[in-house]
Every structure is written in structure tokens, then in C-alpha cells.
Amino acid sequence: MALAVWLHNGDPAQPSTAGAAAALRQALLRAAVHVQAQPQDGGYGIVVFAQADAALLERLRALAASACVLAVGCEPLSPATMWRVLQAGACDVLLWADAQACGAQVLARLQRWHAVQALLASPAVSGLLVGDSPCWRALLRGVVEVAAFTTSSVLITGETGTGKDLIAQAIHRLSGLAGELTVLDCSTLAPELAGSEFFGHERGAFTGAVQARDGAFALADGGLLFLDEVGELPLAMQAQLLRVIQEQKYKRLGSNTWQPSRFRLVCATNRELEAEVARGGFRADLYYRIAAWRCRTPPLRERRSDILALASHFLRQLAAGRDYALDPALRDYLLARDYPGNVRELRQTVARIWHRHCGPAPITLGAIPPDERPAGEPPWPDAQFMAAIRHALDRGQSLGRIGQAAADAAIRLALEQEDGNNQRAALRLGVTDRALQLRRKAQADSAKTSPDAPGAASSHPG
Ligand SMILES: Nc1ncnc2c1ncn2[C@@H]1O[C@H](COP(=O)(O)OP(=O)(O)OP(=O)(O)O)[C@@H](O)[C@H]1O
């Protein structure tokens, strides 16, 4: 996969940006990077600029919604300006020094992003973790980068059923470790056996220790130790774990011999661990060791646009690889439903529907178990509406543009449904015939003067 990037001069009138953009273009071409004429969805962009004014920030926001953008400032930038550029969605911001140094920095970043992108598309990640919503993509990009390019410990926080366990598996796959993934669920450790679960024991170390046994530290040597529900770890055990992490060695219960163990540590919890630290329930020194890098798996309600892809993924798993279509009404049901148990609950919902379905035709609403069918009309605004608004906000759209686009869409749909009849469409929309005519004329005029204006493409011809 050849590396391609779009290069944009944000201040064409400024000689400094013109010079920097030209030098950067040369440096990229020398490194066999293809410089594109247009930004590509999911691609990379470089914006060279002198002034981070409102127009540039708006441009960055629009680009960053679908691409990784590197901002390169050609004049000295204040920290406040750098923050604004990052808040507008730039993945990184650099200061132009000279062509050679800056070219090398830009190239290094592009190569890293490209490598991360390739890993995201690899079966190790895409075959395991489904989702393309902006928040899920941002999470995965961070996970892949830290997993593949560092040996850092990782703390994964998030509600139940949001994929923490799967993220740990992905980190193991990407770490390049020869050793296994060893999982220990700290919420199921019986206090009297917890030491043995971690350290292992010698024969006769305690009553019932009829055989010597390896613990998690031995099993994880050379691999990855995943401590699930780490927030449940008793304080005494926390102190012992800290020591092993610091010294990279441990003793089996009943033994005097130190055993080395080198493992990568990944922990997960659905507790607010920082609050636990503040309240004294979790050791601060351990927290900082296990949380060298942190990430949060978003609840499904924050990534509703992934629901159908996840549902299809689970259906394919249940149907042993066969693809089954979902009837539109069933898709709407899945999109509008709440999932307090997050992706796990979606998976179970799909499984219950699948179990009731038979035959090759698309799966319909009738496959929903009777006790799960909603009573009465669903409330409005519903989750789908909220998801569309959230998506518009994520893309940096203002209240005015969102309202305008929603009104334009309602008019277009009402007209479509009433076969273009203005009077009937007006009745549906709760406005007068004349008001709708005026509105459509205003839409058509605005489309003529501004081809990029919101709704231009959607305005219905008179
Ligand atoms: N992005 C995803 N793609 C595919 N499957 C997913 C995804 N996220 C979660 N799942 C599925 O949802 C279920 C729950 O995921 P997982 O066990 O990783 O959640 P968790 O956050 O660790 O939950 P808990 O805190 O309860 O242990 C699993 O069946 C998992 O395969």
C-alpha cells in the first residue's frame, strides 16, 4: 500500500506558507509519497498555515472528520493557537523550522499513521473488533499505536459489555510477544487462594496444596497478563502486585527462590479507578504503574452508528459464516432500542432473534421474542434522531446548519411521499401551502447562489 497524502496551503497569500508547502512537497516526492490533488476519506492530509483564523479552523474541522490531518505552522504559534488547532481535530501540530528537519518529522508521522492504518485493517484487529464510528475508530487507533509501538502497560476502563476484554486480546495480538495471553479475573479471586493464583505454590505450601502449581506470573512470563476487574483487587494483593511489577520477579508460595517474570500488563475495570485512588480504595503507586496508557471503551449509546455492523457480525457468527439480511423494520428496531448491557446485550438480542428465525428470507420483526416487543408507539425524538444530531455535532456543524438541514430534509421527504403535491406536503408538515412554496423558493435560490450550501443537493425542484 503506497503512502499518499493531500497537501493543502491554508494561507496561499503568505510567502512563508507557499515556500514551506513547496519544500514539503519536494521532500514527500523524494520519499516516494504520492501527493494527491484532493483529500481522500480515511486518508492523510497536511495543512500548512501561518494564521489559525476561523476559516482555517473550520477547514480543519471539516477535514479531520474524515482524515488524519497534520497541521504545520509556518509562523511562531502560541500554545493557545496550538490547542485551538488540536481542538479543531488536527491529529498533530508541528512548527516549520527548515525543509530538511520538518520534512523528516512530517514523513515520520505519516509513516507511523500509515503503519497504524495497515494494522487496523489487518485480520488481527478488523477480524476481532467491529465498528467504524468516529469514537470507536479514535479508540482503536490509539490502542493499535500503543500496542504495536510501545511496551507500555495499558488500563482499559469502560462500562460492562463494551469490549474491554476484546481490546486486551487485540493488544496481545499486536504486541508481538512470543508468550501467551494469561487472564485473571480479580472479581472471582477467593481471598484465601488469591496469593496462589498470582504466585503459584510449592507442594505442601498450605493445607490442600497437594501438588506444586504455576500461578499467573509464571504463566504470563514472556507474554501478556490481563487483569480483568482490577478495581476489585484487595489492598494487600495490590501491594504484592506492585512489588512484582517493580522487581520483575516473584516467589512461589512456600518457596525461597526468586523466579523472573517479564510480562506486559493490561488491566481493565468498569470502576472509576481515579476516584478509588482519591478515596483510598486503590493504591496510587499501583495505579500509575498499571495506567501508563489509558483508554476508555465507549458505551454503545455513544456509537449507535455501529449497531447494524455489529448485529451483522454477530449474525454471521451465529449462522456459521452465512450472511442473512435484516428487514428494514427490524433494523430500525435494533437501532432505536436501548442497550444498558452494551455490545454484549446487542449480541444476546441478535442471538434471541436468530434462534426464532428460520428460512432463507430476510429476518423480520416477527422474530423478536414476544416479551421483548415494544408496547405502543415508540417515543420521539428517538435514539436514531439523536444519533444523527450527534454525528452532525461531531462533524462541527452549527445549530443553524443542523436546523436548516433537518428542515430541508423534512420538506424533501414530505414532498417525495406526497408525489410532489405541495398542498398535501404542507398539510403533513403543519404549515400553509404558501409558506411551503416560499420555503422551497428560498431553498432553490440558496442552492443557485451557493452550490455548497447545506441542503443545496437536497432541494426539491419547484
Ligand atoms: N467492537 C466489538 N466487535 C465485536 N464484538 C464485540 C465488540 N465489543 C464487544 N463485543 C462482544 O461483546 C461481548 C462483550 O465484550 P467484552 O467481554 O469484551 O466486554 P467487557 O467490556 O470486557 O465486559 P465486562 O466488563 O462485563 O467484562 C463479547 O461477546 C464481545 O465479543
From TrEMBL:
The keyword ATP-binding applies. Residues 438-462 are annotated as: Disordered. Keywords: ATP-binding, DNA-binding, Nucleotide-binding. InterPro entries: AAA+_ATPase, AAA_lid_NorR, P-loop_NTPase, Sigma_54_int, Sigma_54_int_dom_ATP-bd_1. It comes from the Bacteria. Residues 129-355 form the Sigma-54 factor interaction domain. One of its GO terms (molecular function) is ATP binding. It holds the Pfam family AAA_lid_14. GO terms for biological process: regulation of DNA-templated transcription. This is Transcriptional regulator with GAF, ATPase, and Fis domain. It comes from Pseudoduganella violacea. The lineage of its organism: Bacteria, Pseudomonadati, Pseudomonadota, Betaproteobacteria, Burkholderiales.
